[in-house]
Amino acid sequence: MPRFIELPRRYNAASHFVDRHIAEGRGAKTAFIDDKGSYSYADLAARVNRAGNLLKAQGVQPEQRVMLAMLDGIDFPALFFGAMKIGAVPVPVNTLLTTPDYDFLLRDSRAVVLAVSDALLEKFRPIVSGQPHLKQVLISGQVPPTVTPLHKLLEAQSDQLEAAETTPDDIGFWLYSSGSTGAPKGAMHLHGDLVHTAVLYGEEVLGIKEDDVVFSAAKLFFAYGMGNAMTFPLHVGATAVLMAERPTPQAVMKCLKDHQASIFYGVPTLYAGILAAEGITKESGSAKLRCCVSAGEALPEDIGKRWEKLFGVQILDGIGSTEMLHIFLSNRPGDVRYGTTGTAVPGYDLRIVDEHGKDVEQGGIGELLVSGPSSAIAYWNNRTKSLNTFQGPWTRTGDKYIRTNDGYYIYAGRSDDMLKVSGIWVSPFEVESALLAHPKVLEAAVVAHADTDDLIKPKAYVVLKPGIGAEDALVDELKAFVKDRLAPYKYPRWVEIVDELPKTATGKIQRFKLRDKA
Predict the structure, then answer these.
(1) Same domain flag for 265 and 281
(2) Is 469 exposed, middle or buried (0-12, 13-18, 19+ CB in 10 A)?
(3) Backbone phi, then psi, for 327, in 5-degree steps?
(4) Is the pLDDT of residue 458 over 60?
């Protein structure tokens, strides 16, 4: 059964993740390092209190939403926990969306305050005046002469603030799903959810400690990044490095080296990009690196093995979701089995079921269901999808999995992405992993495509490594390469060389766009 951490009835997440460190004598320790400087736990606590007082001064009431469209930096945790501390509900959103996307999110969330980084302001200018609920816009960074910047507004506020009398079961924050297959859905999380992930995954799987320095390429607005670079380090009193810029291979390696990070969190695309980048060696990164984590999409076996060979550090592949807040199925330090997603994180239960909700036989493919203490309670204003996803204690993940005889879970693909070839289920991820083992391939995506008899077969879209030419002979070479490694019916009948694959802002391949193209 899921293991719930005992929390007092009066509980505010800001008190646990921020204020507690002052009482425990950790005030002088560095909490965050961003592009502009470093901030102690005492600095953070004061900034959170000023942010909470600023929001109260703007008229924000408990349970009202505060949207955060912010690049990674100290203002993000300050406003996130400042809102939670007064009982309001922060709603971090993807920083790579379009103006119509933000218009939808502002209207859907009914946010009364928008906090936005200056670099993102232009996307909001055309829509803020027409919002029916928005009352105030706070700008972090450079502002027009007639506007007071966020840092000045914060300086004018008191650094003392009593936490609102919330409970672990109060709505604490929302996270919107990526919306890769439709309009984004606002997953509503509780004040108590954050500490469950910090203990069950952060401490019990990663073994994160107070002396760790962590860096996450995944940004704070993303459920994965929020745990990685904010709640996990704040739970144990560690130090997190925040980087506002896009996490290119070169920028990531420089950040790891400059700050000598001990834990690094990335996504498979980034790990592959670093391995393919010219001139990157073991010495390009951190000498103190002891643990790497991957999520967002399943990690191909070949990438994990090549990374470990080059850097001498294992990658812990895991799977989480916006709905579950963080990773609930993962490999472990010292027990990494590349090609699998490992075993259940302590405190989480898993099932694999067929289309009728019945448990599949051992070794069969089915949808993964998870039960655990960090699940969102519902989607905002979306009863039908809430009922389809949150079913009693179980949350449907939409991911297909196989469980091995010794209890390890093998990813087969998203439910919508599975192929049925000659009456047999084929995992696109399995075919993609075979392609990625080819020395000329950087990325691959496999989708269903009908042949001249209208029968479904695999089609592959392939991105080559830098400097590799797309010769005609390469297509046949790739087909043969896969055929040598997998059952004959699984090899891609068509291979199309492309410059890039369509992806969400969090790095997930949007196979539905390739299906439409195919």
Answers:
(1) yes
(2) exposed
(3) -70, 130
(4) yes
Residue 15 lies in a domain: no
For the purposes of burial, counting CB atoms within 10 Å of the CB of 423, is it exposed (0-12), middle (13-18) or buried (19 or more)?
exposed
pLDDT of residue 512: 85
Same domain flag for 390 and 498: no
Token readout for 59 is: 């008229």
User: What is the chain's alpha carbon radius of gyration, rounded to the nearest angstrom?
Assistant: 23
Q: What is the pLDDT of residue 487?
A: 83
For residue 206, what are the CA distances in angstroms to 237, 447, 501?
15, 34, 31
Contact 359, 219 (CB under 8 A): no
Q: Which two tokens stand for residue 42?
A: 């005492």
* Paired tokens of 210: 């107070």
- Could you tell me whether strands 441-450 and 424-426 are parallel, antiparallel, or unpaired per DSSP bridges? unpaired
- Residue 7 to residue 399: CA distance in whole angstroms: 31
Please give the mean pLDDT across all residues of the chain: 94
Domain end, chosen from 414, 444, 472, is at 414
Q: Give Cβ neighbours of residue 421 (< 8 Å, ≥ 6 apart).
A: 456, 457, 458, 489, 490
Give the CATH number for residue 53: 3.40.50.980
User: Which tokens in the block code for residue 195?
Assistant: 């500490």
Residue 23 CB coordination number (10 Å): 10
Max mean pLDDT range (109-123, 181-195, 443-457): 109-123
d(CA 287, CA 75): 30
Domain boundary among 389, 414, 439: 414
In a domain, 31, yes or no: no
CA distances from 505 to 12, 82, 248 (A): 31, 26, 14
pLDDT at 206: 97
- CATH code (residue 463): 3.30.300.30
Q: HSE, CB side, 13 Å, CA atoms: give it for residue 170.
A: 24
For residues 239-252, give the mean pLDDT. 96
Is residue 216 predicted with pLDDT exceeding 70? Answer: yes
Amino acid 432 reads E
Q: HEC profile for 417-481?
A: HCEEECCEEECHHHHHHHHHCCCCEEEEEEEEEECCCCCEEEEEEEEECCCCCCCHHHHHHHHHH
Share of the chain above pLDDT 70, in %: 97
Measuring CA to CA, how many Å separate 448 from each of 164, 165, 444, 511?
52, 53, 14, 10
Tell the residue number behind the tokens 């299906």, with chain if given: 515
Is 355 a residue whose pLDDT tops 70?
yes
Helix axes 301-311, 268-276, angle to 10 degrees: 50
- The CA dihedral of 267, 241, 69, 505, to the nearest 10 degrees, is -10
CB distance 68 to 76 below 8 Å: yes
Contact indicator for 171, 188 with CB cutoff of 8 Å: yes
> Residue 70's domain spans which residues?
43-190
